[in-house]
Task: inverse folding
């Protein structure tokens, strides 16, 4: 029985710099960490391939600088890839490499198929728009025009992320970090995306707020069956959320497996070091 | 027709920071028919849990095969099944109970059991009813239903743990020392639960600290020392 992946990423490469004869060929690249010592080119993502299946949460772990966020930016079209392929199992986009679409088409995908929650709410929210306005902005880009419908949706979303409705017209810059993060989640969910990207969403939040955000994510996943890619350097977050986990180091995927297997029987030296650091 | 057939199974751990490998188990062969209960006996460190964890794929098997007769997939080698297949089987067919309750924090007993049912695709209404049934069945105090299990006693945690695994009516249930650290009274309860599971036709593999407890329950015993199957009776005689 072969299950069809929702999102397929193949050989994603992201390079900063021109590259030189010493590092152009992936097979005999001689890198120091993730950069070429001859020309200084940084290989932020190297040959990253994975599948995201319907309804699952895929965890991405790795140390700072391992390429997790760059990969996320590439997938969300915030950054261009150097090479690689991403396909979405969707009748509208069947078999098209999304990285090579026009910017118009990319925007369409972002507005209709993707939701993104950034580590820093400043990237995902307009801080001087009201929370409701932020949600409306996303709804409008997804093609909604009926104001009262948008308001109803907005209220429902804010309620589901526990933002008191009397503050819905307030600007998120007045909110605490945890609240901003929850508004960001509400905004990301407003177009009903089949895929949600979460980039270090709980980093920097205190424990109880972190717990609220994690509970919320888990609840959304259970109730709506959205597929999620969760990037975190926090193994506890990954353990709690992810069914399967990918481990990145120096821009490459070094290991992937069931989350409990990665944590209890890590294969790669780096993953072992990472797991032994836990507790 | 065997429900589970373990052939030439071995597991080796590579420990990078020591630069060496450790052979945890090797040449494990046994098979299990539907509805049978096999106990695994052996000293601590002999690899009993390694076998269970490899079947559940918490450990990545590296040698041999573990062929399981799945309702959905037919015969499937768990040692080589895809992650998605394993996730499906864990959700629907194979349960695992250890002495530790490893659950989502800030989730009440009731929610935990409901969640197990919802994962299988039951409706909210049915999940609610079935969860209450299960909590009743395992005699968890009504007061505890809406509290978080981190404050539970060992026995309560274990009963919740078993309730979570059995509410899905798994075809194959792996029991990893579920009675360790339990008092006699709680053990009796676990025993009743296991007997009930057996009557319902669940296939079981279990590791128990308490040899007598195990011998009284299982149909056959896999002895880690001889790497062979024996009858539960033999064990008693030898240890006596």
Result:
């Amino acid at each position: 029985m072969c299950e069809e992946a929702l999102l397929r990423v193949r050989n994603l490469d992201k390079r900063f710099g021109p590259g030189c004869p010493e590092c152009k060929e992936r097979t005999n690249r001689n890198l120091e960490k993730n950069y070429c010592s001859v020309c200084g080119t940084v290989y932020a993502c190297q040959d990253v391939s994975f599948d995201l299946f319907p309804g699952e949460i895929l965890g991405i772990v790795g140390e700072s600088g391992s390429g997790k966020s760059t990969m996320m930016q590439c997938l969300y079209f915030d950054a261009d890839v150097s090479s690689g392929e991403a396909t979405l199992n969707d009748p509208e986009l069947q078999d098209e490499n999304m990285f090579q679409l026009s910017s118009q088409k990319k925007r369409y995908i972002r507005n209709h198929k993707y939701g993104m929650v950034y580590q820093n709410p400043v990237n995902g929210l307009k801080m001087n728009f009201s929370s409701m306005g932020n949600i409306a902005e996303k709804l409008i880009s997804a093609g909604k025009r009926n104001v009262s419908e948008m308001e109803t949706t907005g209220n429902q979303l804010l309620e589901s992320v526990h933002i008191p409705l009397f503050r819905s017209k307030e600007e998120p810059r007045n909110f605490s970090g945890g609240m901003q993060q929850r508004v960001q989640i509400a905004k990301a969910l407003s177009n009903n995306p089949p895929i949600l990207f979460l980039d270090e969403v709980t980093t920097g939040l205190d424990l109880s707020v972190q717990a609220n955000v994690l509970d919320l994510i888990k609840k959304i996943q259970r109730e709506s069956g959205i597929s999620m890619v969760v990037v975190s350097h926090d193994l506890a977050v990954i353990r709690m959320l992810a069914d399967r986990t990918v481990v990145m180091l120096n821009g490459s995927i070094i290991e992937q497996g069931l989350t409990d297997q990665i944590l209890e029987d890590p294969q790669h030296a780096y993953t072992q070091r990472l797991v032994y650091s836990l507790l | 027709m065997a429900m589970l057939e373990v052939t030439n199974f071995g597991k080796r751990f590579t420990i990078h920071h020591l630069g060496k490998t450790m052979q945890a188990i090797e040449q494990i062969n046994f098979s299990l028919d539907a509805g049978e209960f096999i106990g695994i006996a052996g000293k601590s460190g002999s690899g009993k849990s390694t076998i269970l964890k490899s079947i559940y794929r918490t450990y990545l098997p590296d040698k041999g095969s573990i062929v399981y007769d799945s309702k959905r997939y037919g015969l499937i080698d768990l040692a080589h099944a895809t992650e998605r297949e394993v996730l499906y089987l864990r959700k629907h067919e194979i349960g695992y109970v250890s002495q530790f309750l490893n659950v989502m924090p800030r989730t009440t007993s009731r929610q935990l059991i409901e969640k197990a049912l919802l994962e299988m695709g039951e409706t909210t209404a049915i999940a609610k009813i079935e969860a209450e049934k299960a909590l009743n069945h395992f005699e968890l105090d009504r007061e505890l239903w809406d509290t978080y299990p981190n404050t539970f006693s060992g026995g309560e945690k274990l009963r919740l743990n078993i309730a979570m695994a059995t509410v899905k009516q798994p075809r194959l249930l792996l029991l990893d020392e579920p009675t360790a650290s339990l008092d006699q009274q709680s053990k009796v309860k676990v025993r009743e639960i296991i007997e009930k599971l057996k009557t319902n036709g669940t296939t079981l593999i279990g590791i128990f600290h308490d040899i007598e407890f195990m011998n009284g329950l299982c149909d056959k015993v896999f002895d880690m020392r001889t790497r062979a199957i024996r009858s539960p009776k033999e064990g008693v005689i030898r240890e006596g």
User: Anything to note?
Assistant: Chain A has ten helices and eleven strands. The first strand of chain A starts at residue 7 and ends at 16.
